[in-house]
Specification:
Mean pLDDT: 90
Number of strands: 22
Distance between the termini: 61 Å
Radius of gyration: 25 Å
Number of helices: 14
Helix content: 10-25%
Length: 548
């Protein structure tokens, strides 16, 4: 049973993958010197007010059906039109949106979700449990190729319950399923006769949702137009209801580079960028730059099966010698957030243990001494044979950020008496060396999902899949991972997570480094709650406003 639960948990890690992540840190943005926004938006900000418009961007639209689109930028702006049962807040806690409540059965195999009353689709029809059933079944239909399907693989069936509720039956208990119920809900009465897999069909290009903005028009060349939904169910009770911004234009570009150029020339008001681009904007006062962690997590995978890294104490010593903040400043140009575990930096789970105690320089020196090493001519050598303590670090040569990081790690460890040889290999050769065990350390990356199930990195079942690159196997850890998935009680789940984190940090099969940042670039005329996060670039968009 434990194996089957963990294998299912692997399937539901939406978008999680071992990543080669090729980047170019030398990209330069056009018009760097010209402060084209300076003085253009010196408008007296009187506070939130209705009115105005904002121009967003997307790459070419494949479909406007949020369940079947594979374009992340389309998913982003469709978040203004559609809503999910839940969303994740900045601490990775599920927050009800269309759902009123969720109750899990004693055996953990059924989740009953009651919907909020009074919510209507943009055409005036009421939101009903059948819409949720239709949405889930549409996602699970393999013909639709939905990006959300991987997260729902543990669902055995879904049906409408009493009092506008939905009953989700699971194949195995999964106390973290709610983290996967953030996908957009679509109306059955509108789409039930459409073939969702035919992305160019009429209704797939004219969406109807429940969100703060309604669809106006779409043109493949000029883009998408949206307008404020005056009847939005969540508009608030005050006289000045949200959304404040009254119209949204999504302009379409062939690639993100052209979108960024359009931002420079003031043809677009907002763009999302990765670190290779937004680093060129740091320090500029003529725009607003909002940094936030992406899903890209970088770490050192240690060869715990043979060689020096088979010694747990030496693994812990190595972790204490690496200063993540200096590493980011040196190699990542300050465009990342330090992280010890494959958990988002602000996640509530990270707060359960004092992670800093596991990376202590003084303790690292003590551990080296306890394991028979002494400093000689600024290098650690064995007391028994005077052999220097040295390691090999492999990294894929196509990834400039990763190569820079590897070199910076080698420099830090050299200052602390440890010699590191950096081997730059092709991504294919890196993977082959990991499989064969011919390495000491490997600099790798994961793309993390919304669900805080750490089975992918620490479960012994995932040694075979290749995600558990350190080939870490611990029956106690396997037990914690299983119990977390089957424990619906929040406080007991916290205790299990605490024990899990303490154990893996003590065992130290990996050394976490950082999450790479993304950024939202905004023109100065946009005010309000501009708070992008890892889950939603346009988070709280209904509370943005443009001073009139």
């Amino acid at each position: 049973m434990a194996k089957s639960i963990r294998l299912i948990s692997l399937l539901i890690i939406t978008g999680l993958m071992l990543s080669a992540c090729t980047v170019n840190l030398n990209i330069k943005s056009n018009n760097q010197v010209e402060d084209i926004y300076e003085g253009k938006y010196d408008v007296l900000d009187k506070g939130p007010e209705k009115g105005g418009s904002v121009r967003l961007f997307s790459t070419p639209v494949d479909t406007l059906n949020p369940i079947v689109t594979n374009n992340q930028y389309v998913q982003d702006f469709l978040g203004l039109v559609f809503e999910g049962l839940f969303k994740l807040d900045e601490k990775q806690q599920p927050v009800p949106v269309l759902a009123q409540s969720a109750v899990t059965s004693a055996d953990g195999l059924k989740i009953t979700i009651t919907l909020k009353n009074g919510i209507k689709w943009h055409d005036g029809a009421p939101l009903q449990s059948g819409d949720v059933v239709f949405s889930i079944n549409s996602i699970l239909d393999t013909k639709n190729g939905s990006v959300y399907a991987a997260g729902l693989q543990n669902i055995a069936s879904v049906s409408a319950g009493n009092n506008n509720s939905v009953v989700i039956s699971l194949k195995q208990p999964d106390a973290l399923m709610i983290y996967s119920l953030t996908f957009p809900i679509i109306p059955i009465h509108y789409y039930n006769k459409e073939k969702l897999s035919e992305k160019s069909s009429k209704k797939n290009l004219a969406p109807i949702g429940t969100g703060p903005y309604t669809f106006v028009s779409y043109d493949a060349k000029t883009g998408v137009k949206l307008k404020a939904n005056d009847n939005w169910w969540n508009k608030g009770d005050s006289e000045l209801t949200t959304p404040y911004i009254q119209s949204v234009e999504v302009k379409i570009f062939q690639n993100t580079g052209k979108a960024t150029n359009a931002f420079q020339s003031r043809d677009v008001d907002v763009v999302t960028t990765d670190y290779s681009e937004f680093k060129n904007y740091i320090g500029r006062t003529d725009i607003s730059l909002k940094r936030y962690p992406s899903k890209n997590y970088e770490f050192l995978s240690l060869n715990i099966t043979k060689g020096p890294m088979a010694n747990k104490s030496l693994r812990s010593a190595l972790a204490g010698f690496i200063d993540k903040k200096k590493l980011i400043d040196t190699a990542a140009y300050g465009i990342a957030v330090p992280a010890e575990l494959p958990l988002f930096p602000n996640s509530w789970i990270n707060q359960l243990v004092n992670i800093e105690q596991y990376s202590d320089l003084k303790k690292s020196k003590q551990l080296m001494t306890q394991n028979g090493y002494v400093l000689s001519h600024n290098k650690y050598v064995s007391k028994t044979n005077s052999k220097a303590f040295s390691l090999k670090l492999i990294v894929n040569q196509e990834n400039e950020l990763r190569v820079n990081t590897a070199n910076a790690i080698a420099a830090q460890l050299a200052k602390n008496g440890i010699t590191v040889e950096v081997e730059k290999l092709t991504w294919e050769n890196v993977q082959n060396r990991i499989k064969s065990g011919a390495y000491d350390m490997a600099l790798l990356g994961y793309k993390i999902s919304t669900k805080p199930d750490l089975s992918f990195a620490y479960s012994s079942d995932n040694i075979k899949t290749g995600l558990n690159t350190a080939k870490f196997s611990n029956p106690v850890v396997d037990g914690y991972l299983q119990q977390i998935l089957s424990q619906p009680d929040g406080e007991k789940q916290k205790s299990l997570y605490t024990n899990l984190l303490k154990t893996v940090l003590d065992e130290r099969p990996y050394i976490g480094l950082y999450f790479i940042n993304n950024s939202l670039l905004c023109s100065k005329n946009i005010k309000g709650a501009v708070n992008p996060n890892i889950w939603n670039s346009y988070n709280d968009f209904s509370q943005w406003y443009v001073p009139q």
